[in-house]
Design brief:
mainly alpha, 4 helices
């Protein structure tokens, strides 16, 4: 149940990426993957790679996914910006 809470929180954070310029690696789908995977991975890390069950899941469990989602979205965004700059620096060949 904890994993579901983390993934749903990542999905909720992902919805806010519409306010950012679309420079994500993989576009909006890349931002989705970054948010969901980041939230799930961060939740697993802070719980010692165990998933809280139904009786152990609280509102705090869902809130634990927020930092991971933000980190995941940030990493995907940074990679997209890096690739965009690298493509602009490389001269086009015909």
């Amino acid at each position: 149940m904890g994993l579901l809470a983390w993934v749903i929180m990542g999905l909720a954070i992902w919805h806010f990426t519409i306010w950012l310029p679309d420079r994500f690696w993989g576009g909006i789908v890349g931002a989705f993957v970054g948010a969901v995977v980041g939230a799930a991975l961060f939740g697993l890390i802070i719980h010692g790679f165990s998933i809280p069950g139904t009786n152990d899941t609280t509102i705090v469990t869902a809130l634990e996914g927020i930092p991971g989602a933000l980190i995941g979205v940030g990493l995907v965004y940074a990679e997209g910006v890096r690739r965009e700059r690298a493509a602009a620096a490389t001269p086009a060949t015909r």
